[in-house]
């Protein structure tokens, strides 16, 4: 308390007797907002609440006071579960404050990158109890993720038949079963994570599935059939059915984290296909694990193909071979099951592996000694060096 008033010089001070603690009214929040002290219908229905989500820095200021106020005024705890998240700090790890001037205006971030991108950034980087540093680069990356989903949905709609997709019994190929099986596992894992309040882990799995498995792999695999729909309409429609089904379920898993873009794509897809599941994605049924979407054999087969394609791409990248340069690819394996995998998936393996021709055999017969190779589980992939490299041109370049 000051000894003397700096303005009038008075030395006699009286403390205001009608002052409450700053957090007093906040402690009454769980029931005062529902009509208390009147016994309203809202109060009877909503009290006690289910989950409180808050930062660890106000456990004593707010959480504890809500609890003892709830017991005092209502005779019951105000909530069943409390989830403590960390604090959002600046890029240097400092707490955001007015005095430091290091805070961010969320409206400016939303205007620049979108609300979904900001929302996803805060959820993915903030594990329970741990602080996170805010980087604009993360928000930009999540904005790019939104663009990725948008472009995937556009690809699907561009390839849909004008009369809509009327597929009741899709002829699923191994790649279709692979992505459905991966989605099935994702549904179970994400649901378990969310039930355990592991929100950051859950959305990271959805992010990886959509970007990597669905966009970077399955869409590229499906293009082989969708671009040949005039030649084989049933195969193309089965690929489109799988694309639509997987995207629809993935959007539902992502919706709690990126509500705006998922709502827009979901409703647009419904309108374009003439299928009405619900007026809004938020009132559709949450995806559930299905036993008939377990395709372990097909999943293993496509993972084998993926490993081979990654090996081929790594070798070509190390040698600076452009994707436009096609080459003969030999798959050598003593295991008949492995050879059968490549025979069954030969068409899309050739496309993804930049091969003009694929030979599948038991031994190295007919393969040049200078062929470059990459090894995967159960097989070795060879590519003739001369087909990858124009030796004379490379000599000229080096000289």
How would you characterize the overall build of this protein?
The protein is an alpha/beta fold and 399 residues long. Helices cover 53% and strands 10% of the residues. The protein has 16 helices and 8 strands. The chain has helices at residues 24-27, 29-32, 41-46, 59-74, 106-113, 115-124, 136-159, 174-195, 199-226, 233-254, 259-273, 296-318, 336-344, 346-352, 385-388, 391-398; strands at 49-55, 79-85, 88-89, 132-133, 327-332, 355-361, 372-376, 379-383. The strands form 3 sheets. Strands 6-5-8-7 form a 4-stranded mixed sheet. A hairpin with a 2-residue loop joins strand 7 (372-376) and strand 8 (379-383). Helix 8 packs parallel to helix 10 and helix 9 (199-226) packs across helix 14 (346-352). The N and C termini lie far apart (83 Å). The mean pLDDT is 90.
Regions with pLDDT < 50 over 5+ consecutive residues?
A: none
How would a textbook summarize the main sheet? 4 strands, mixed
Give the proportion of residues in helices. Answer: 40-55%
Give, in spatial order, the strands making up the sheet with the most strands.
6-5-8-7
Average of pLDDT: 90
Choose one word for the global shape.
elongated
Number of strands: 8
Structural class label: alpha/beta
């Amino acid at each position: 308390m000051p000894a003397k008033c700096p303005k009038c010089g008075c030395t006699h001070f009286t403390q205001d007797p009608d002052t409450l603690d700053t957090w007093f009214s906040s402690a009454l929040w769980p029931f005062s907002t529902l009509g208390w002290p009147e016994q309203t219908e809202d109060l009877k229905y909503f009290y006690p609440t289910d989950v409180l989500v808050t930062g660890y820095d106000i456990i004593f200021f707010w959480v504890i006071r809500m609890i003892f106020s709830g017991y005092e005024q209502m005779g019951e705890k105000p909530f069943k579960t409390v989830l403590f998240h960390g604090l959002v700090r600046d890029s240097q790890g400092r707490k955001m404050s007015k005095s430091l001037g290091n805070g961010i205006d969320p409206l400016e971030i939303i205007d620049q990158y979108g609300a979904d991108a900001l929302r996803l950034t805060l959820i993915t980087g903030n594990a329970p109890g741990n602080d996170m540093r805010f980087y604009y680069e993360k928000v930009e990356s999540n904005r790019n993720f939104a663009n990725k989903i948008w472009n995937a949905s556009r690809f699907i709609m561009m390839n849909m038949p004008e009369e809509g997709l009327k597929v009741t019994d899709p002829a699923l190929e191994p790649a279709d079963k692979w992505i459905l099986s991966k989605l099935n596992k994702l549904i179970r894992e994400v649901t378990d994570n969310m039930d355990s309040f592991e929100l950051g882990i859950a959305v990271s799995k959805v992010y990886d599935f959509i970007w990597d498995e669905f966009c970077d792999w399955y869409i590229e695999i499906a293009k082989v059939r969708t671009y040949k729909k005039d030649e084989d309409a049933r195969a193309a429609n089965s690929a489109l059915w799988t694309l639509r089904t997987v995207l629809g379920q993935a959007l539902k898993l992502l919706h709690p984290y990126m509500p705006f873009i998922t709502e827009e794509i979901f409703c647009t897809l419904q309108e374009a296909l003439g299928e009405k599941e619900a007026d809004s994605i938020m009132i559709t049924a949450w995806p559930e694990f299905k036993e008939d979407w377990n395709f372990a054999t097909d999943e293993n087969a496509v993972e084998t193909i993926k490993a081979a394609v990654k090996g081929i791409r790594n070798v070509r990248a190390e040698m600076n071979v452009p994707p436009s340069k096609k080459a003969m690819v030999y798959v050598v394996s003593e295991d008949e099951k492995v050879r059968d995998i490549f025979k069954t998936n030969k068409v899309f393996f050739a496309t993804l592996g930049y091969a003009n021709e694929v030979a599948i055999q038991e031994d190295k017969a007919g393969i040049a000694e200078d062929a470059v190779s990459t090894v995967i589980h159960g097989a070795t992939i060879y590519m003739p060096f001369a087909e990858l490299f124009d030796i004379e041109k490379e000599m000229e370049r080096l000289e």
